[in-house]
Amino acid sequence: MIPILLILTTGAAVSDCLMSRITNAWLCAGLLTGAGLLILEAPGELPGRLLTALLVLVLLLPAYLIGSLGAGDVKLLAAVAFLLNRRQLIPCVLISFALGALLGLPACIRDRTLKRSVHFALPVFLSVLLTLAGSAMEIG
């Protein structure tokens, strides 16, 4: 799952930074590849992971509706929720929002406004890297 997660978030970050959007085709390809691998490796985990991804979608829907997150960002975090295990998910999401705030802060200060957008796929990608590194350090 880790290679799929890294490819998915890297591509999403590049796409978001270059085109200011994350394509549905990219997200679907990552999810379908992850689901296929999960079915082969641990089919019993599929229902729980689907529910986790759905829960993330539902919880982040208000942020999308008020314009705090784009639809692609919400779908990306749901895909990340599907591909990570539950123990990694909460730190990853919290780190994503913290990094998003830190990356947006200089522009907010410079422009003297709180209405600044950040290519949120970049903080998501960085948080995945940090979460996976933290998990690897726990194991090793």
What would the keywords be for this entry?
140 residues, mainly alpha, globular
Account of the 3D structure:
With 140 residues, the protein is mainly α. The protein has one domain. It has helices at residues 2-19, 24-41, 46-65, 71-83, 86-111, 121-139. Helix 1 (2-19) runs antiparallel to helix 2, helix 1 (2-19) packs antiparallel against helix 6 and helix 3 (46-65) packs antiparallel against helix 4. The longest helix is centred in the C-terminal third of the chain and has 26 residues, at 86-111. The model has no long low-confidence stretch (mean pLDDT 93).
Report the span from N to C terminus. 19 Å
Question: Which range best describes the helical content: under 10%, 10-25%, 25-40%, 40-55%, 55-70% or over 70%?
Answer: over 70%
In total, the number of strands is 0
- The H/E string reads HHHHHH
Q: Which helices and strands appear, and what pairs or packs with what?
A:
Blueprint: H1 2-19, H2 24-41, H3 46-65, H4 71-83, H5 86-111, H6 121-139
Helix pairs in contact: 1-2, 1-6, 2-4, 3-4, 5-6
Question: In summary, what is this structure?
Answer:
The chain has 140 residues and is mainly alpha-helical.
